[in-house]
Amino acid sequence: EELVVQVVFISTGGVPACTSPRVVIDAGRGRRLRVVESHLSADGDDASLSNGVCRVVLAEGAKVEHEVLQQKAAGARMVESVTAEVGPRAEYQLRLVQSGAKSARVNAAVALLGEGSSCKVTGTMLADSDQQLDFHSLIHHSVPGCKSEQQQKNVVAGSAECIFKGSIRVDKEAQQTDSAQMCRTLLLNKKAKVKAMPSLQIQADDVTCSHGAAVTELDEDEVFYMRSRGLDPGQAKRLLLVAFPQDLLGDMGASAPKAHRRVVEKLERMADA
After folding, report:
1. Residue 127 CA from chain centroid, whole number
2. Residue 191 DSSP SS3
3. Is residue 85 a contact partner of residue 62, using CB atoms and an 8 Å limit?
4. Are the CB atoms for 96 and 135 separated by under 8 Å?
5. Which of 16, 43, 175, 245 pairs as cysteine with 206 (C-beta 3.0–4.6 A)?
6. CA–CA separation, 136 vs 123, rounded Å?
7. Residue 148 CB-density burial (10 A; 0-12 exposed, 13-18 middle, 19+ buried)
8. Maximum distance among all Cα pairs of the chain, rounded to whole angstroms
9. Average pLDDT over residues 152-160
10. What is the DSSP letter of 260?
11. How many CA atoms does the CB half-sphere of 214 hold within 13 Å?
């Protein structure tokens, strides 16, 4: 049976202040756990800094689905470090969604420490106006027979910037590693910026690894196709933007419906800008 835990951090006030939330997730042998960790602002005047740390430990055969949802006010700032230690045949899934704050950075480090362990890391960042959103990650394979998958999608508008730096490290002992990493970005205007830096550091020779990055604009052919089916240009653009990250958001509409609605609303605003 899966246990579901909701953890919500809410900051308030227009006076600059700093909070330091701490979360420890310790999943015992064979346990199933879903944690939804939300970072929010009580009002639009929030100008605080959140400096958070989350440590996740998975014993043998455990499974943890961890969601980190950053949707703070436009003047707030946030830094969070997430570490995960994954035991034998355990599975860790991290889903990061960032759409708020003036500047925010999440660092994630996943250590696959037991044979047969696996992780899946997905990230979605939506930045407009003058936002700067960062996601830096390290997935470390140190033992044989482990699997990792990482997918990142960014939508950037205005003069905003998204930064993705993802590293996969495979030690010499980590033979039969299976790892894939991909970052995709949509830039909605000429001032929007992205820095995508996927990287592989491989010392083993019996591995299956891949990585890549793609940066593009909204496909005018897709917009034309939808217009030919009766949609106006605004409707077509909204539909395409909302659809872009949905494969990574998955069942977020069920696990965090209000957060999912805020993501959709921001994408629609970005399409109309």
Report:
1. 13
2. coil
3. no
4. yes
5. 175
6. 10
7. buried
8. 57
9. 97
10. H
11. 9
DSSP single-letter state for residue 102: S
Residue 127, token pair as written in the block: 């930045």
Tens digits of residue pLDDT in 122-145 = 999 999 999 999 999 999 999 999
Of 2-6, 170-174, 232-236, 245-249, give the lowest mean pLDDT range.
232-236
Instruction: Return phi, psi of residue 24, to 5°.
Output: -125, 125
pLDDT of 1 over the 80 cut: no
Cα–Cα distance between 50 and 120 in angstroms, integer?
A: 26
3-state helix/strand/coil string of 19-65: ECCEEEEEECCCCEEEEEEEEEECCCCCCCEEEEEEEEEECCCCEEE
Q: What are the tens digits of pLDDT across the range 224-261?
A: 888 888 888 888 899 999 999 999 998 898 989 999 99
Amino acid letter, 16:
P
Task: For residues 174 and 101, give the distance between their C-alpha atoms in angstroms, rounded to a whole number.
Answer: 38
- Which two three-digit tokens encode residue 125? 């960042």
Total-model pTM: 0.95
- Give all strands (DSSP E) within 28-160, no chain letters: 32-41, 49-58, 63-71, 77-86, 91-98, 103-112, 118-127, 132-141, 147-156
